[in-house]
Amino acid sequence: MRRFFITGIGTDAGKTTAAAVLTETLNADYWKPLQAGSLDNSDTIKIRSLISNTKSILHPETYRLSAAMSPHAAAAVDGIKIDMEKFILPETSNTLIIEGAGGLMVPLNDKHFVIDLIEKFKAQAILVSRNYLGSINHTLLSAAMLKSRNIPVAGIIFNGKTEKASEEFILNYTGLKCLLRINEEKNVDAEMILKYKSLLNSDSISGI
Q1: Strand extents, DSSP E, 62-133
Q2: Pick the catalytic residue: 32, 81, 186, 197?
Q3: In sequence order, which ranges of 107-188 are alpha helices (DSSP H)?
Q4: Which pLDDT score is estimated for 38?
Q5: pTM of this prediction?
Q6: Are 25 and 201 contacting, i.e. CB atoms less than 8 angstroms apart?
Q7: Are strands 178-182 and 153-159 parallel, antiparallel or unpaired?
Q8: Is the pLDDT of residue 51 over 90?
Q9: What is the pLDDT of residue 72?
Q10: Of 27, 58, 139, 208, which shows the fewest CB atoms inside 10 Å?
Q11: Structural domain for 71, as ranges
């Protein structure tokens, strides 16, 4: 089973949109291990509304936390502590798209971070970068952290307004592959996801 862990350079980088494109393109299963806040409009619910294929199975979250906070803090609000042993990969023979929470160093508890989940699941990382002032720094730091843990990175997805110079610098410095560029879209819906599926179906996705 191929596993891809979608992680971002920070909150609102565009992980869910990227995950929807990958799930749709690969007819993959989807799993969000941890949802903090927005339980009535969770990322799993969003993915369900964005994909069109009938093969993908959306697996339930391990933790559903009520507060839109860092997971370790949201867990404290709910009177629990996140236990790494409770994160068990869904049983599937299909490709699995796993979506993280925030960035790599978002704490899950006193000892563990989102990056520890990627290691635990033995997944390839896909890094989602959104262009803004400071995003080069955040992207390079994220790539360096993944490299320091010897976590394989399938590539980068750039989301939002295109900044060619920034993207070229990031790709040249990290040596990572650009899998896709997602533009700033007025409507994020199933039709939009299908549009980017056609782009990701090109040579950019071969070999991962």
Answers
A1: 63-65, 96-103, 124-130
A2: 32
A3: 114-121, 135-148, 164-174
A4: 83
A5: 0.94
A6: yes
A7: parallel
A8: yes
A9: 96
A10: 27
A11: 3-205
Q: Which helix (H) or strand (E) segment is 31 a member of?
A: strand 29-31
Does the pLDDT at position 200 exceed 90?
no
140/125 Cα distance (integer angstroms): 14
Q: d(Cα 19, Cα 114) in Å, to the nearest integer?
A: 16
Joined tokens for residue 153:
């990175």
Closest CA to 28 of 101, 92, 88, 91: 92
Q: Which two tokens stand for residue 63?
A: 């933790």
Residue 147 dihedral angles phi and psi, to the nearest 5°: -65, -40
Distances (CA, A) of 16 to 101, 172, 203: 10, 26, 22
pLDDT the model gives residue 121? 97
CB atoms within 10 A of CB 50: 21
Please give the structure tokens belonging to residue 29: 């299963």
Name the domain count of the chain: 1
List all residues 6 or more positions away from 45 whose beta carbon is below 8 Å from its beta carbon. none
3-state helix, strand, coil in the chain (%, to 5): 40, 20, 40
CA distance 144 to 162: 23
Whether 111 sits among the annotated catalytic residues: the reply is no
In Å, how far are 14, 33, 78 from 97, measured between CA atoms? Answer: 14, 11, 27
**Encoding tokens for residue 204?**
């950019």
Q: How far apart are CA 188 and CA 172, in angstroms?
A: 30
d(CA 50, CA 180): 18
- Fill in the amino acid letter for 45: I
**Domain of 40: which CATH number?**
3.40.50.300
Q: Cα(first)–Cα(last) distance of the chain, in Å?
A: 12
